[in-house]
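Continuing the batch. This is chain 6 of the set; chains 1 through 5 are on the previous pages. Same settings as before, nothing changed between runs. Recording input and output for traceability.
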Amino acid sequence: MKKSTLWIFVLILQSSLGFGQIKPIRVGATMPKQTEKMLDISGKEINLQGASKGNGILVIFISNACVQVDQYENRITNLIDFSNKLNIGMLLINSNEAARKKEESIQQMQAYAIDKRINCYYALDTSSAVANAFGASKTPECFLFDKQYNLIYHGAIDDNAMSVSAVSINYLTEAMTALASGKAIQTNETKVVGCRIMRKPKG
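Output for chain 6:
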């Protein structure tokens, strides 16, 4: 099955499952407090505040096996360098608790990070607790916070999930640049296109 066809199938499946009922925190809200630390691929335990830098923190929910994340892999790698340049912390989070025994285990996350040359925090979100607190529903889904931990951008990385050459607006890098320079963000919320975060059923 071609990637484009598979992508359309994934979107139809997600719509039928009704995961859009999950509502993300609103722009302007304070970052949810995290009481439990997450296991990073380095073997260390980290929390949201610990991953932050002088100008804030960028949190992106990703997956090892999502078609959309695969399309964005080079752009995510570039974001790591870009965030370091702007003194913005970057934290990738895997909240796919329902697939831990398959492609979303910590071992698979470590292998994925090596293969994709990810050199930032990539943490396992046990029971999807952080995704629930954020109201995150898809991968990749971005949340950018300023140094006071106020949400200033939520949404997609850019305006074309399927082709980097067809991108006309880089929503996230524009927001990050505005944050680092103290300027107003022109677009602070955009539609997220991606794979459903696989939570365990309740009960």
